[in-house]
Amino acid sequence: MSGNETRLQAIYQITNREPISISPTEPLKAIWGCDVFSLSTMEENLSKSAFKAINKTAHTGEPLDSATADIVAAAMKDWAMAKGAKYFSHIFYPLTNITAEKHDGFIITNPDGSSITEFTGSLLIKGEPDGSSFPNGSIRMTNAARGYTAWDPTSPAYIMHTDNGATLMIPSVFMSWTGESLDKKIPLLRSNKAMNDAAQKVLSLMGETDIATLNSSCGAEQEYFLVDTNFANARPDLLLAGRTLFGAPSAKGQEFDDHYFGAIPPRVQVFMQDFEDQLYRLGIPAKTRHNEVAPGQFELAPYFENANVAADHQQMIMTLLKITAKKHGFMCLLHEKPFAGINGSGKHVNWSVGNSTQGNLLDPGKTPHDNLNFLLFCGAVIRGVHKFGPLLRAVIASAGNDHRLGANEAPPAILSVYLGDQLEKVFQDIKDGKLSVSDHGGEMDLGLSQILNFERDPGDRNRTSPFAFTGNRFEFRAVGSEQSVSGPLVAMNTMLADSLNWIANRLETALANSTQEEAVINVLQELMNEHGNAIFGGDGYSSEWHKMAVEERGLQNIPTTADALPAFREESVQELFSSTGVLSPIELESRFEVYAEQYVLSIEVEAKLVVDMAKTLILPAATRYLSDLSLANASMQDMGIELDSSVAQTIASETNAMIASINELSSALETDGFATTEEHLQFCANTLCKLMLDVRSHADALEAEIADELWPLPKYQEMLFIK
Ligand code: ADP
Ligand code: MG
Prior knowledge:
Layout: H1 5-15, H2 28-31, E1 36-37, H3 39-45, H4 48-60, H5 66-82, E2 85-92, E3 100-105, E4 107-109, E5 115-117, H6 121-125, E6 126-130, E7 147-151, E8 157-162, E9 165-176, H7 185-205, E10 215-228, H8 229-232, H9 236-241, H10 266-281, E11 286-291, E12 297-302, E13 305-306, H11 307-327, E14 330-333, E15 347-355, E16 359-360, H12 368-387, H13 389-395, H14 399-402, H15 421-431, E17 438-440, E18 443-445, H16 448-452, E19 467-469, E20 474-476, H17 486-512, H18 516-531, H19 543-551, H20 561-564, H21 571-579, H22 585-638, H23 646-669, H24 677-703, H25 716-721
Parallel strand pairs: 2-9
Antiparallel strand pairs: 1-8, 2-3, 4-5, 6-7, 7-9, 8-9, 10-12, 10-13, 10-14, 10-15, 11-12, 15-16, 15-20, 17-18, 19-20
Helix pairs in contact: 4-5, 7-17, 10-11, 12-17, 12-18, 15-18, 17-18, 22-23, 22-24, 23-24
Magnesium ion is lined by residues 221, 348, 475.
């Protein structure tokens, strides 16, 4: 095919598409959780004593004795096989953002050729995917290249239905033979424990006696783009990099704001229903769906859940989005910035901590006492964001998210915390010593019940803040759409644990010679004096803030992943993770290495693609058009007509400039021998990214000049608007 034939074909195919028919959706009650080996399913299928043991394990994570493990495994196998599963898989989350799985059959054969099925407790509990090719930093030497998966009984097993049939999926952790974490789940579980341990101390100092285990919760809003596969298949950049590396702006973009919350296109509607039914079968509580700001962009938010389960569900959501979109003729783009000049995608991670006895500790509550607990936990978050801002920036760093952060559509690359007017005033008053303790009829009342009983109107939320209090939780808004939520959750839980430990320490001393109220206020005053600088309620996009944050507040503006990742090597961050037992220095260092490698690889792949596409797709179109123009010019001259040659001149000079940029980029790609990883990262961020943009600027200028019938790549207006 030549010229624009691929594009015309794609448009023809798309305009003749019908929504695929899916079987009529079944009532929610019939499908909710039907593919999950949940506690209630276990209760039905297990003896009383076996259920009691597994129930305890599921709630505490304590190991299961081998006899019970055998019983649970057998019941799980029978349940899964009755649903058509012949295989099982330990599913795990390596340090990339992907989900990994290795499938094993239940089958074993007898010497006489007959077959039986087997699934023992030890097969359930431990798997050995080998996995020597998963990135691990330098943790696993090749002589010990084995990685092990182990069942996480606190996240239920489930059946995944694909075209290949049903598979029993067992959520697992992934570790080296020396027991080091090679995954995103282990630190999440450990961070939850660290947070619980610290919170218990603070709550007992506050006089609470009945304190259930605290858990962090997560509700993650997922944004994504849908592009028709006919277009996506004609764009090597979408296929290999998940974003467009070229593309002149469309005459119409998102300026009318007519897509946000607009009517969902019919084909997308059918896709969403199909996708959500699958989520419901897996017990994933899909709750809201709508169009997003950019044309072709959508959002899905499940109801919040326990952070560990929510993180597993989030991974399933990303997997299922891609698989289901394909079935409906779409490519689902989870990349943070698929189209230049058009809003990118993020993942807002809503996070809170609580338990069954004290409730949500980030909810102001009704009594003065509840409010004291709330203020302490809220203060702990403020301290965490201030002290570990660079870490929070590092856990959301990726090549993709760099295009989004600070681009005036997403939070800036400066970590501050937004509290809302009323709560900000409370903390400011505490800092200024204006909040004095007064005695009302025996009960100390800080007068907070009224102040904190503020309106929880999401409308007045500050959308320019990376980290915002939204009434009963914090919303980390700077997370990338393609990222696992585990990294951010680990950082939040761990910084909270550290702050709560600090608070417990101070509180204990303060309580020795003052009342509880005074002690709390004193501790919070000290906290605010040291960390109040992180609070910011103004416009996070403004240049005044960028200046003030750095110059007056001492906060860091960390624009790229190359600048952000070294935070993992900082002493304070090492100390944070080792003192809380969440990551050993070796585990932390391996994370730095793996994330750095991922960044370098993504930039290099993109740079190679830029060279390849510019040379093999764009250059030929430019030279063909130039030759058309010169032929036309020659024949016009024969007729004695003078044709304006400025178009040809522009194309020639843009083409020459593009060739020069391609050459520069190609030779930059040959550079090696970097002294440090940090240096290599900076080279990618500064040299390669800049040269890619150079090539692109000429290519995009050419797109605006060259005859449409010669342009080989689907254009922005087509990908964004033709559905
Ligand atoms: P918005 O777009 O206004 O931010 P959404 O309804 O799209 O709101 O998403 C809010 C998310 O926050 C949902 O996933 C919701 O379940 C979650 N959420 C609500 N309360 C809590 C809480 N206490 N802890 C964690 N997440 C919560
Ligand atoms: Mg939100």
